């Protein structure tokens, strides 16, 4: 019994059992050692392949979202331009005009765009709202601008049957019967309609337009 315990003066006490420090420290065994498992080459290649596929699927969705956002922003520019032209015509009790803007390369306003051949006029650079002070020739002169909305013609095509419309003092629009602006970005399109009473409305965005 000597060496297997402690003498207390009246009796032997058994030696307490101590843990195996080698096992706890990982020496001589796997206990206490965290398991380390890495990805195999096959698993890594599979993960990369999935990431590539997901990114390719996301590209068309991002492109479609950008087209829709461009159409919506340009449609709102036109809508607000018509609204302002009509409101100014009513307030001033005189005709107010909205024409296809003509800009220099530095984006300085020159006036209204000249007429183009064909049944449709492309509003390439923007829309100009102005009030003809002399009310004599329905054409823009310096200092008559009320609003200028600029378009990104490389991304959005804007066209209408006329290059200029007139909002009359009573709110009606010329040409009589109203008109429709057609906007296109990529394969998507949007219509902004102006009714005979001069009120404008924004249509819905259509996909896969011919």
Automatic annotation (TrEMBL):
Record GO biological process: protein secretion by the type II secretion system
Localization terms from the record: Cell inner membrane
InterPro entries: N_methyl_site, Pilin-like, T2SS_GspH
One Pfam family this sequence matches: GspH
Chain segments annotated as transmembrane: 44-64
Signal peptide range: none
Domain General secretion pathway GspH: 78-198
Membrane topology recorded in Swiss-Prot or TrEMBL: Single-pass membrane protein
UniProt entry tagged with the keyword NAD: no
Main localization (coarse): membrane
Keyword terms, alphabetized: Cell inner membrane, Cell membrane, Membrane, Methylation, Transmembrane, Transmembrane helix
GO CC terms: plasma membrane; type II protein secretion system complex
Keyword Transmembrane applies: yes
Family statement: Belongs to the GSP H family.
Record-given protein name: Type II secretion system protein H
Organism: Chromobacterium sinusclupearum
